[in-house]
């Protein structure tokens, strides 16, 4: 399987399912940690895994369950998003019994955020949280002893007048001016007063952030006045001052970087975006991964997106990928926090806005890379991707006639071999949308494979079932490559899913069919990919299916399962791997194979002859001790020879 959504790009690296499950188990182990901070963070990350489908089933009930557990253990982030997530998933949000309480200031911040979220659709959560910080600062300080910078931060005009009588605005140890701090505190009158008294808004702090970046801290109804005032005093103020230093706002599941416009978009501050664009902030000319329009698309903030698109010059021509390719690039948990119960509708509105300006499928790119739906299907990052895929399909992305690798095949690859049906939803949607693509053979990757071959190789049982429901005649179709394998060969070769193999056999897959070059049956294909471990359930299913053909594994020489297992064990032993353990496990668990110890190939060789031929002493010992092989038996062709 390829790692990125693009055949020419390695833009996304997603660990294999087996690795994901190990990561999740490690997180679950950490939830029992005695340190509440560690255990609460682990609970929070398990919740994210259930939303993403990373190593566990996508399960919205589990997301809420683990968010609640993180909240009870004292996670501010979990408390911050809890009510919003309950709204998003249409669940009643009952009070929690808290084991580890937040401190008093954090409790006040949570209550304030919940209050404004209940009252307003447009507000600055940054301002709401900082108001509590300022109240706490005032309560714990001797106001008369505050410095110029501290007075500016809490917006105390009387103190500012007093301090400026004996000093001028200057930078503190972090490079922040009093003007900067008045904006960080969100105080319009203090900002005006400092400007009137000569403060310079062009001075950045040590991270390159300016007063313009701090406009996200103002109440939304004040941002236009604040920006206009700054420009009134400094008409040439650079609206596009860029800082690559990231400001961590993890309490809002957010990181801020870039220009003031980037900050405004990332904080979902519509009024600030509107003001900056009206005053000339640069919307176009950014690398595609830093384009404000793409950022807005990634957050699904359709109203902000409309403002940004409206700020493009008439002669604007898109450079690089279209913003459609950014639809899944933001933190999906951040999107839930922004949109709450409207998160599904936000996706469709965003795609609708984009489709009025750009074609959904970019014909200027190679056919594989021109459709953003392919990226969504191939990466399959989170629960929300299904809604992104549906919206893109509604607006034309499903009309992709490129048959080198169909949308159906792309969606099947995006399941990534997960055994969980929650990862398969987009593939099932694509099968309903394009049933005619089921029999189409890929050209760009694994040439000659159909959808059933891809699904069987991945062990994706629900998708295999849907394909065979729609096209039952596909069951024994072969790949159009050198080996001409069937779906059963591929499922057996990967050995991932007993359920898939059982389903294929029940739908008429023929266990006697041979591959073209190696002449392997599905049983032989399974054995050829075994190391010292053994999937007993798959082995049992294939043995039962092959009983009527004498457990044939290789057709040309009439090798059965035990002959082939001996050959495979010899290869592994030669590679310094314990191949003979494969034989021992087969002997212990599969009596039908033990009974084959005296059967012969077309050349009259028994399994012990093969082990002797390969000089595999470990396998010889297993065959004699565990299988009771006759070490004096002779071959039956040409010059008869015994193993000894």
From TrEMBL:
<feature type="repeat" description="ANK">
    <location>
        <begin position="256"/>
        <end position="284"/>
    </location>
</feature>
<dbReference type="InterPro" id="IPR002110">
    <property type="entry name" value="Ankyrin_rpt"/>
</dbReference>
<keyword id="KW-0040">ANK repeat</keyword>
<dbReference type="InterPro" id="IPR036770">
    <property type="entry name" value="Ankyrin_rpt-contain_sf"/>
</dbReference>
<keyword id="KW-0677">Repeat</keyword>
<feature type="repeat" description="ANK">
    <location>
        <begin position="174"/>
        <end position="206"/>
    </location>
</feature>
<dbReference type="GO" id="GO:0005737">
    <property type="term" value="C:cytoplasm"/>
</dbReference>
<dbReference type="InterPro" id="IPR006597">
    <property type="entry name" value="Sel1-like"/>
</dbReference>
<protein>
    <recommendedName>
        <fullName>Ankyrin</fullName>
    </recommendedName>
</protein>
<feature type="repeat" description="ANK">
    <location>
        <begin position="483"/>
        <end position="516"/>
    </location>
</feature>
<dbReference type="Pfam" id="PF13606">
    <property type="entry name" value="Ank_3"/>
</dbReference>
<dbReference type="Pfam" id="PF12796">
    <property type="entry name" value="Ank_2"/>
</dbReference>
